[in-house]
Amino acid sequence: MLRKILPCAAIAPFLLACAPFAQADMQSMSPQQASLLDSTCTQVMGLRKGEYYYALCRESLSGTLAARKQGQDVAAAYKECRQQGLADGSVAFSTCMLESKATAAVAQPVSVSYTGAPSTEPGKSFYSIPPRVQFQRERYACAQLGLSPGAGAFGQCVADLQIAMQSNPN
After folding, report:
1. pTM reported for the whole predicted model
2. What value, to the nearest 5°, has the Cα angle with vertex 36 and ends 26 and 59?
3. How far lies 86's CA from each of 72, 75, 76, 97, in Å?
4. What is the pLDDT of residues 127-147, one digit of tens each?
């Protein structure tokens, strides 16, 4: 019995430590990004504010935006350190990457450019469309964030959104 409890006790602080990250993503968003997420979840996904799945949609897409920004920041830091002539894999390069203050300026779209592709059955609630149409809407929602279909980040966004939309509210 004690052997079963100890591993869980050892893991619990790490699980709890992850909880603030989802909220931090939402709090660090610009008003334009928040508006984009709201519009994407309502207009593209067909959800309504206040619904359980609406909140999950916003949270999932917020995490995608944060991951995208982090990736852009790492790429900018990498470029900055390489321009200094530092060798990739060296201690100096790694230190430069850690100390880099480079942040990529990311222009986030302010409004949804989604026009309602026929394959997404626009105007219908998310709850009244078949799974294949829900999948199409999830793909369009990720495209609204500026992710390119076929890229790893796009696939991860769609997968995260699918998982969020399949969770049980009970």
Report:
1. 0.66
2. 35
3. 20, 15, 14, 10
4. 899 999 999 999 989 988 888
